[in-house]
Each structure stands twice: as C-alpha cells, then as structure tokens.
C-alpha cells in the first residue's frame, strides 16, 4: 500500500492597497528612513483601511486561491486560520472567512500562535490529509497587525503590516509534499514578547487602555537572540 502524502497544491496572497512608507512613519514617531533601513530593512508596509478586519483579507486570499486552483468552494472540507488578530474573540475568524468565501460544507477553527501560527496550522492540516479524514484543506495565515501596533513605539511599529495568504493542502504523489517538521514552544519567553492587556489575566479596563497594554510588546534583542539560535538548531 502506498503511503498517503500531503502537500501544498496552490497558494494565493492578498495585501491591502494602502502603503505606509518609512517617510510617512517618520511623521508619526521619532524615526527616519535611514534608521529603519539600517536596523530592519523594510521600506513600506501594507495597512488595511475602510473598517474591514482580518477575515476580509483572509476571504480575499481564499477566493483567489479557489480561482487559481479551479476548486469548487463546496469541495473544501476544512479551513484552519492562523491569526492573533481575530475579528472577535468568537466566532472564529476561520468561520467568518468560510462564510465570506462560500465554503458552505467546510468546518474550521483558528490557531493562535503568532509567528509560528502558519507552521502549526500547516502541520495540523497535513495530518487531516494523511489520515484520510479530508481531501481538501485550506490553511490561511492572516493578521491585521496594525490593529495591535503601537505607533508611538519606534522599536516595533516599523516591523508590522497587514496581509493574508492561503494555501490548499491535498494528497500528493508519494515522495512529494511536507517531508518533516521540528516544532517546539517555550512559554518561558513570554515576558519578552506579548500583549499584556485583553486576556483573562488582565481583562480590558480603562486602566489597561490608558496604559497602552493592548499593543504588541517586544524586547527585540532577546527575541532575536533566541529566534536565531533556535531556528538554526
């Protein structure tokens, strides 16, 4: 019996039209194009406007994926959305994307793992294919990071923008597809990268808003050091 393999058979990305350049950013916070380029290397980031949210970007990515792969929306059985900027605490962003993209026969859920989210979601999707439970699974990575970015913090605000991408995961020929993965987490590093307010530990209050605790907090040097060494390993 041949082994069932799972792989990516299609991909589509979507970004908003609005471009937040380094020059414009320098009018919002104490920074310059030169400072950003020397330390980060980013010239511009896309920002979602018009009152839309993460599910809008995810749905646009999924609709483009369906068109590109010639897939009937009714053939998709599962959608997994990796995001930390869900439209709501509930319902899940995956469910909202499913509705907007016409995936009427799919079930879905979100994975909240920040930078690791897409990798975790992809690994999860492959298991549904390899087990034979499903034949077509869509994985979406989408975040509206502008909604949790502090534009008074010059160490973090140049880093983030808004975008979405979707991939189709299906059975592929033996010898192809996702070959291996090494996934680990370290909750002990939470003090270096987190959003303090809004969770069950620090529910939203006037004080958490006034203290700007609903934005990304990052100790860049500590995160960089761990990320480089662990990913290299």
Brief synopsis:
The protein is 29% helix and 22% strand. The chain is of the alpha/beta class.
What does this structure look like?
It is a single chain. This protein has 233 residues and is an alpha/beta fold. Helix content is 29%, strand content 22%. A 5-stranded mixed beta sheet has the order 1-7-6-4-5, sandwiched between helices. Helix 4 (93-101) links the parallel strand 4 (78-82) and strand 5. The longest helix has 16 residues, at 54-69. The model has no long low-confidence stretch (mean pLDDT 95).
Please write out the topology.
Elements (H helix, E strand, L loop, with lengths): L4 E10 L3 E4 H4 L7 H7 L4 E4 L6 H16 L8 E5 L10 H9 L5 E5 L5 H14 L6 E8 L17 E11 L20 E2 L11 H5 L6 E2 L1 H13 L1
Parallel strand pairs: 4-5, 4-6
Antiparallel strand pairs: 1-7, 2-3, 6-7, 8-9
What key attributes describe this structure?
single chain, 233 residues, alpha/beta, 5-stranded mixed sheet, two-stranded antiparallel ribbon, 7 helices, globular
Question: How many extended strands?
Answer: 9
Helical/strand content category: alpha/beta
Please provide the ordered H/E string of secondary-structure elements: EEHHEHEHEHEEEHEH
State the separation between the terminal residues, measured CA to CA: 35 Å
Cα Rg: 19 Å
What's the average pLDDT?
95
Any low-confidence stretches, pLDDT <50, length ≥5? none
Strand content: 15-25%
- Indicate the overall shape: globular
Helix content: 25-40%
Largest sheet: 5 strands, mixed
Helix segment count? 7
Strand order of the largest sheet: 1-7-6-4-5
